[in-house]
Write a structure and sequence with these properties.
about 375 residues; alpha+beta; Helix Hairpins; HSP40/DNAj peptide-binding domain; 3 domains; 4-stranded mixed sheet; 3-stranded mixed sheet; 9 helices; 17 strands; about 25% helix; elongated
């Protein structure tokens, strides 16, 4: 099945505000969330479709790329593949944990999936984000970058229990270990986080002195991150289990490394192809020449300039572009014919002689725009 336009998916116009985008997605997310539609594959696909559309249209950079180039513009920026379990948009849309919103609105327990969040249960640690900036060349050919960040690690004194040695946890007397207080309001049973244990389901009477009862300690971490060849601006690299430590023995979260690529002075990129502009003289353009050009990886290549080449013409050099997934793009060289600012006396004499020999067109006709399309 062909992908639907993101605006069509959310049922909004292209000039919709961020609030309109958010409202449209909230409505669809509540309608098609898997917890409300257990076993319904169609609802699950619609939920993923809406989430993908929201992730792109709610981000100014991705939205601009999508508006200009369609789906191709957001490939590699999160618009063509998703880790749905780590999507962070729910907190922005619903003001908190998505599961607790469903528990509050619909009474909880859709498919029983939320019961795993009950008191004292092991929970995965939070995902973390780190932003790095790399050079254009490193983005094209790949590199390794050392990053430093802070993360919660398991407290070595209490081994994440949060309780001092010789003591332990006690079931919360207010919620009896559920982590929630339920109140009846008309026909609905509304759940809210227990104010005594803050949703944990237990209380610690004698907190660990090392971590203050949190079970974790904040520490600085240094790791080497491998940036693959061909990475694009805005992409992210996921480092598994390098986020915050889990709770009650749960696994650690992941680290998301977001990449910003600095522009290059001479080269630009479109997909896997590289582009640059090279100046040539009037005589080189007229007579043809062999010139040597330094490319992005530092080597020098020999390029043949055809006699009579026109200003702005492009030359394609195969397999000198961006490497990615076992193949490599091309390099496009745009020739810019330079006219000298000032001629020597002899140079002027020669140009005047050339003008007489070749003749000059004193009444030139306009050139059709179609002939300039490739310039």
């Amino acid at each position: 099945m062909a992908k639907r336009d993101y605006y069509e998916v959310l049922g909004i116009q292209k000039n919709a505000s961020k609030d309109d985008i958010k409202k449209a997605y909230r409505k669809l997310a509540i309608q098609y969330h898997p917890d409300r539609n257990p076993g319904n594959k169609e609802a699950e696909e619609k939920f993923k479709e809406a989430t993908e559309a929201y992730e792109v249209l709610s981000d100014d950079q991705k939205k601009s790329a999508y508006d200009q180039f369609g789906f191709a513009g957001v490939q590699g920026m999160g618009g063509d593949s998703h880790d749905w379990s780590s999507f962070q948009g729910f907190e922005d849309i619903f003001g908190g944990d998505f599961g607790s919103i469903f528990d509050t609105i619909f009474g909880g327990g859709f498919g029983g999936s939320r019961s795993s969040r009950s008191a004292g249960g092991a929970r995965q640690g939070a995902n973390l984000r780190s932003d790095i900036e790399i050079s254009f060349k490193d983005a094209v050919f790949g590199t390794k970058v050392e990053i430093q960040y802070s993360r919660n690690e398991v407290c070595p004194a209490c081994h994440s229990t949060g309780a001092a040695e010789g003591s332990g946890r006690k079931v919360c007397p207010s919620c009896q270990g559920s982590g929630q207080i339920r109140r009846s309001q008309g026909f609905f049973s509304v759940a809210s986080t227990c104010p005594t244990c803050h949703g944990e389901g237990y209380i610690i009477e004698h907190p660990c002195k090392e971590c203050g009862g949190s079970g974790v300690q904040r520490k600085k971490q240094k790791i080497m991150v491998t940036i693959p060849p061909g990475v694009e601006n805005g992409r992210r690299v996921v480092i598994a289990r390098q986020g915050d430590a889990g709770v009650s023995g749960g696994p650690a979260g992941d680290l998301y490394v977001f990449i910003r690529v600095r522009p290059h002075e001479y080269f630009e990129r479109q997909g896997l192809d590289l582009y640059c502009a090279v100046p040539i003289s009037i005589t080189q353009a007229s007579l043809g020449a062999e010139i040597h050009i330094s490319v992005l990886d530092g080597k020098t290549i020999k390029v043949k300039v055809s006699p009579g080449i026109q200003n702005g013409k492009m030359l394609r050099i195969r397999n000198e572009g961006v490497p990615s997934a076992g193949r490599r793009g091309d390099l496009y060289i745009k020739f810019m014919v330079q006219v000298p600012d000032k001629l020597s006396k002899r140079g002027r004499e020669l140009m005047e002689e050339l003008s007489k020999v070749e003749g000059e067109n004193d009444s030139p006709k306009p050139i059709p725009l179609s002939e300039l399309a490739g310039s």
